[in-house]
Amino acid sequence: MSNKDAFFQHIEEGYKTKGDYISMGAAMLNGDPLTNALVKIPLKTLNRHGLIAGATGTGKTKTLQILAENLSEKGIPVLLMDLKGDLSGLAQPGNDNAKIQERHTKIGFPYEAKKFPIDILTLSEQNGVRLRATISEFGPILLSRILDLTDTQQGIVAVLFKYCDDHQLPLLDLKDFKKILQYCTSEGKEEFQEAYGRISTSSTGAILRKIIELEQQGADLFFGEKSFDVEDLTRIDENGKGIINIIRLTDIQDKPKLFSTFMLSLLAEVYATFPEQGDSDRPELVIFIDEAHLIFNEASDALLDQIESIVKLIRSKGIGLYFVTQNPTDVPDAVLSQLGLKIQHALRAFTAKDRKAIKLTAENYPISDFYNTSEVLTSLGIGEALISALDEKGRPTPLAATMLRAPMSRMDILTDTEVKQVISTSKLIPKYNEVVDRESAYELLNKKIEKAQTEEAQQKAKEEQKKTSRTSTRKSSAMNPIIKVLTSATFIRGVMGILSKAMR
Ligand SMILES: Nc1ncnc2c1ncn2[C@@H]1O[C@H](COP(=O)(O)OP(=O)(O)OP(=O)(O)O)[C@@H](O)[C@H]1O
Ligand SMILES: [Mg+2]
């Protein structure tokens, strides 16, 4: 048997699937694709997470597009974080041309131009469905992690949440949180001291400064009502196609803190909301994060821990997470080690550091009798990638340098008119874009302060009249009440917020 025949057989056997799958393209040997040596990803393994990496311009975003449209085609909803704004083209059919025809002839199946149902979501005031979350939903733990608080500061945040919970003070936006933060050391000082121990203004000041930093990245737009119901991410259209939810994040590149805040809250909420899946033959939702280095680069250790644990846990809910980034080393090892599908586009060897990274990347792929992996990594063309997946039994499939299919949808962005068209037909816009201004902690505390001030004035007047003096007989509790609150079982159950399960 020739080497070529042996390779064909190796790929055919290694990528055999019983259930449904996505064809990515054809495996290549010595730089040429073998027609019909198809590289197939079983739907069953798509909740096992993945990575799409490669130098700039090698085709990562198009690979993401290919996966997204094929998932939609199979009725699986998708969520895309579009940081460069280059994914909206999914809503229009692609342009057939001679080059694409040639690519598909080599691969072994014809090119089809198709469009897919999309919804455009936004964190800012751009056109699109507004994505928001309330501070209460966020919970004290996540908020502390995002703000990178010390243990003492975390204790205070936990107490503030508990207080608001006990006193029915909804914490909706940052204005509410700043109000309670200020209240606990001013008008509410005695009340807090009695119940929870003294809270120092230097600690609340430090927390406030961190909140302001977050606000400067535009977080005030993100926190508030109406909060987004993550179940709306799993819609299927009338033709049975999964809806592709595209979050436009073009204005978030220079706001890494806001991006990680949002990402983490979304993942935590998805984790808390979706039911356990057991052994399912397809994912419930697949999430792609383009330019993923942005979440990891600026994340604190606490935040990284949190991301790692969510990545680990979310799989059982049938959610697949796919990171797209230039270099695999952008992704922390603990996350990398959990990824089932790896699609590695070409890497460039300009510097000694590059060569080291290439060697390291090659070592992380299964050994192949047919390839010198480091050589393949530097010689792949645009729209070609090394693929290593998992078969339906969870075993690694053979390493395959793959000529990828072309996206069925447009490889370019939508025009402004087309974007308007998508937005005008969105079913979510009426639900989420109305302005809600419910009475929350800010207003309620202001009322309380006002009431207390009038009562105090009345009381003073009475006392003046009677001209009698009294002394306070309040005693503070012996044990540090903050610790008491933090360890009480009811508190843990009630106030841990959306991450409670993930934390155990
Ligand atoms: N599968 C493919 N089929 C046909 N053409 C492709 C394919 N993948 C990539 N290309 C071509 O390569 C170009 C660059 O691809 P893409 O934008 O996906 O690169 P990228 O790796 O995401 O780049 P960047 O790092 O700049 O974001 C595309 O505009 C397209 O012309
Ligand atoms: Mg890209």
Automatic annotation (TrEMBL):
Composition skew (Basic and acidic residues), residue ranges: 455-467
Region (Disordered) location: 455-477
Residues in Helicase HerA-like C-terminal domain copies: 34-472
Source taxonomy: Bacteria, Pseudomonadati, Bacteroidota, Flavobacteriia, Flavobacteriales
Name the UniProt record assigns to this protein: Putative ATPase
CDD domains: SIMIBI
Pfam families reported in the protein's UniProt record: HerA_C (PF05872)
Domain of life: Bacteria
